[in-house]
Amino acid sequence: MINLENLLRIPYVDVERGYDISPDGKHLAFSWNVGGHWDIYELSLDYPSKIQKISDGDGANFSPDYAPDGNSIAYVTDKVGNEAFDIHIYDRSCNRSTNLTPNTIESIQPALSWSPNGKQIAFISNRSGNFSTYIMPILGGTALPIFSRSQPDMDVAWSPDGQKIAISSESSAQDKQTTIVTIDGFACYPLTWNQQVLNTRDACWSPDGKRLAFSSDQAGRFNIAIYEIDSGQISWVTCGAGDKYQPDWSPDGSCLVFVHSQDAEAWLEICTLDDGYITRFQAIQGVHHHPRFLPGGNGIITIVENPACPPDLWLLSLFEGSFHQLTYSLPTTFDASNLILPSHIWYSGMDGRQVPSLLFHPKKLTDLCPAVIVIHGGPDWAFQSIWYPLMAHMASRGWVILAPNYRGSTGYGREWQLANRYDLGGIDMQDIVAGAQYLVQAKLADPKHIAITGRSHGGYLTMTCLTRFPQLWACGSAVVPFINWFTSHEASREDLKHWDIENMGDPKDNYARWYDRSPFFFLEHIQAPVQLICGANDTRCPASESIAAQSKLKSLGKQVEFILYPDEGHEFLKIENIVDQELRRITFLSSILEQSQR
Hints:
alpha+beta; Neuraminidase; 4 domains; 8-stranded mixed sheet; 4-stranded antiparallel sheet; 10 helices
């Protein structure tokens, strides 16, 4: 059995909030949790073993972004897990950071963009009640709004000529739209196709500022397209199976690199724009993230991971056509050969539709294996072949692990992703239940020893499954869940309320749906022991949700274990809490799943 605490203490490079390359192409800035604390590090590409920590103080640090002259690095800090980020500027000449937004009470998105002259920075804040885009002078002064709409802004990208900003905002359903806004605020226009606003993301300016590359699922799968600023014309660069996203331009504007994701894996592809020729590059089997050309055009930086390799920075040398690993998170003493890689499978849902999933087989498989259904959050996300210590440990215990990409997941086309719109806690829950039934029918698991667990939206679906199909489960562990649509909605931020209404309808007009899909009102049906884990500073799934559920479960005489971390939010940031939480989760599950083996 692989020691879970050892797995959890293995560091990794932050995937979600990226990294940055210095303008001269000599350094990388990235967020890394070496020693269990999220800090900003700088790596020399001339001497990759030379890595320096540049952030300091309390809090977790993310989203590094070099200034145009390379002399400073902007990054954000979350002190208590409540997503009220502060923006810091690190001066490389004197090795000192300055907090530009001290005593922040509003939420700031971890998305920053420097003006080309380095005198201002664009960011997104909900200080006005909705997430809007602001521009702030670096030397001090008032941050002024440049763009505001009823839907929340999510990301910003300043044009190379300094005259425009591409802003990504939430749109209808789970869509996002990209709007180009002039700095004077007099003109703004979204990207459209056939007079319809496109669902777009990952907007990236060409080096000359005359084109904008982006990803859109206009044809059902995400593909790369180019928008011509002067003419307003859009040309499609890719087509076909899988999703393509996160484009980046070569320095001369002749090529685009992007991620091609299909089923459990994601690799890099480079498209030569004059002839449309595409070349595939893959460091290892697994998932590649955020490819970026070096300023000299001779290489590409990316983050790579799989279940046996934590996320690390890699360099693709275009001269050699080969990859070189730059950071080494996995200790040399750790034997990764014991880690089990998953299979990508499909099983029949309750209505006969095939449901994609990852399946971890233990090395010694019997028909009496305990099993765990692990449910991802989002719900617009998907399990791929990624680093996930908890599942690796559970598989090493001899358990079968099934991680369904239920309807509502990304990566399998627009129709699949939106199939649970206005049906959250319905068809997605049925897909998960069908996964447990598949394990029994395929004789992969002991039907009396199947557990269910998930985080965030996965925690919600855990509670939904426990209430709707109580006879299936030996136990269930819900981490940072919401349990009551009504109370969770009222306690949420504006952007989360917008998402709720877009995907479940207005609570007043759709009261019956909101009630029926709230497991809080059906807790009396639960038959299995329940574990609830939450963070007191959670702004997404408030701890009050778990507190109320615990109280009601106890009043009903149900077996419930409740754990509250007073210094964490939705995403646990402190390594000691992460270790403690996951050890408690595995202890709870194993005490029930393995009881017949004692």
